[in-house]
Amino acid sequence: TILTPNSPTAELQALDAAHHMHPFTHGAGLGEKGARIITRAEGCWLNDSDGNRILDAMAGLWCVNIGYGREELAEAAARQMRELPFYNTFFQTSHVPAINLAARLAELAPGDLNHVFFANSGSEANDTNLRMVRTYWQEKGQPQRQHVISRWNGYHGSSVGSGSLGGMKGMHAQGGMPIPGIHHIDQPYWYLEGGNMSEDDFGLARAQLLEEKILELGADNVAAFIAEPIQGAGGVIVPPATYWPEIQRIVDKYGILLIADEVICGFGRTGEWFGSQTMNIRPDIMTVAKGLSSGYQPIGASIVSDGVAKVIDGVEFNHGYTYSGHPVACAVALENLRLLDEEGIVTRARDETGPYLKAQFETLTDHPLVGEAKIVGHMGSIALTPDKASRARFAGEAGTAGFITRERCFANNLIMRHVGDRMIISPPLVISKEEIDTLIERARRSLDEAH
Ligand code: PLP
């Protein structure tokens, strides 16, 4: 049977349940009500197989920065498929889309991040980074520098390497992660973990955990520190202002490579092209994916400094994916970057819709359930609490309040995610002020219903 977007929902759900294993999903739980089947999308709006129109405040999975339904991207894919649907870039060959995209990324990326190693996802790009930084130190004559430090509740992907870099305990509990040589320090999550400290003091203290870990491992044994400029999947946790300057000071002091995982933060999400610019840090490598193609094609990349690239280019780096620099994905990403730039989408998001979204989103703090609202650019979250003064968590299973609110949002045709008791938004950068009003109105209604 080949079903279509117009097939009855029950048939689509039944076949889905019979054969399709969903990521990060409790299959049995889904079985009772079935998956919601998304059939089409335009701008910031999804259609489901029951004819509902849903406001997608998550841009898919933090991906669709440019919004759904851009013909130009479909055209770019079709054109490239006709011209050269595939060729690899392994064995002394290259092709036009990969050349152009690498050059464009070098132009957009800050500092001397001028070299691009392609992958198909954020996970794969972070696996590349893990091997690349270890190879770098090996070739630099410091082969003992193999330890990599990251953070609890950071997210860097779902492969064994990138999942080990991530600090998701639920993931570590399954399938043999983390692999050796990866060490996690606590996150700069003031609201939940800051106790009586000021945000600034807490930010400094959490950054200094990096120095402690470096000294514990031996400064000469550490290859790199990896972190998201703003944690996304962990709950959109905006670090205190003191955090990143201190991290930068520490990595500089010990000569440790800094990997900024920009998979969510990149391509306008935080207001600038990259979260590293918003946070004023100088990474040696940036991981990108998601917004690179606005999710229209699977593609990721490591954007690498002159210094690191020089060393890696000096050896045969035995690493790569069949689809590294896939021509169709590169062509689509290139067109996506052209539109984000030429239509002023990134600058409009920074200067117009970003400030408006922030102002509206922060009004949610007057809701009895909401302890704080944090937002940078087009990524934000609210904390749900039974007691604003103590910043307490809801009793019972963590995330219950978030789960209920998420279900209410779902019923009100608004996609917001929950992580524990935080509710997240990450809308397309093209969201209009009117759509922002709709987002806030539906979020408020859902909170009321959950209260
Ligand atoms: N890094 C970050 C910061 C992410 O948010 C994600 C995905 O959400 C990844 C890496 C993994 O990317 P992918 O799912 O494309 O493998």
UniProtKB/TrEMBL annotation:
Keywords: Aminotransferase, Pyridoxal phosphate, Transferase. InterPro entries: Aminotrans_3, Aminotrans_3_PPA_site, PyrdxlP-dep_Trfase, PyrdxlP-dep_Trfase_major, PyrdxlP-dep_Trfase_small. The keyword Lipid biosynthesis does not apply. Gene3D superfamilies: Aspartate Aminotransferase, domain 1 (3.90.1150.10), Type I PLP-dependent aspartate aminotransferase-like (Major domain) (3.40.640.10). GO terms for molecular function: pyridoxal phosphate binding; transaminase activity. It comes from the Bacteria. Pfam families: Aminotran_3. Its EC number is 2.6.1.-. PROSITE patterns: AA_TRANSFER_CLASS_3 (PS00600). Its cofactor is pyridoxal 5'-phosphate. The keyword Nucleotidyltransferase does not apply. Belongs to the class-III pyridoxal-phosphate-dependent aminotransferase family. This is Putrescine aminotransferase.
